[in-house]
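FAQ: What does the model actually see?

It sees only this:
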Amino acid sequence: MGRFDQQVAIVTGGAQGIGGGVARRLAREGARVLIADIDGKAAAANVGRIEDSGGEAAAITADMSKSADIENMVAQAVRRWDRLDILVQNAWGGPNSRQIGGSAVDVTEEAWDYGMAVMTKALFLGAKHAVPAMARTGHGNIVNIASVHGMLQAKEKLVYEAAKTAVIGMTRQMAIDFGPLGIRVNCICPGHIVTERNGANWKKNPSGLKFFDQQYPVGRTGTPDDIAGGIAFLCSEDASFITGHALVIDGGLTIQLQEDLTVQTAHWALKNPDVKLPY
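And it is asked to produce this:
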């Protein structure tokens, strides 16, 4: 018996990376999973991995910047399995995601609108359509993917930082609004997670990844499985008294005094002069 037997889950951006790992973990624990991703081919491939392992899943091509796609995504899950128990709102990328970097002077209005549509508006719309379906059974879990960037800021990342900070606030508000319906809402704040996409770049620069690894108290950066484990916990009955929480899964990155971390990193760099810095 799995923790999520007979439950139905939607994972946005569930083809690869964090979402891919989450979809496989929920399916392994018994959930029937709808993978929604802008890359339909990759989503179908992840469904194949789940089915090969004995799980049940389906794929749908969906663009989280489009309201109709989000509404259809929820409708498809309910139509296929007649219920909805878990919504993991992970997607944030897309064809325009590389344009959102920069300061308030540099970012275009179009880039701001796109970033906010995918990272914040999509979460509002996902909840808007998912909550009524969950309320019918009096049970549900929504997990929004925020970031350590929602707690600490990096240079020239206005759109991403603003959006991820907003995700934490939205999560708390949703927890208050939907708790009486039996629906818990939490979010995850991941540190640096090595995925299929950025992992290809790290293979070209392994010393750069080591530079990141040594900044984490646990001695490594994260994997999608690290995040999937946290999400599975939050959606389980073991977390039945947890809602409105921002769970930081970052190997201890954000608990460090920045002055000490800077000195530690400088010493490490001096001992490793051949390191190719990631930026």
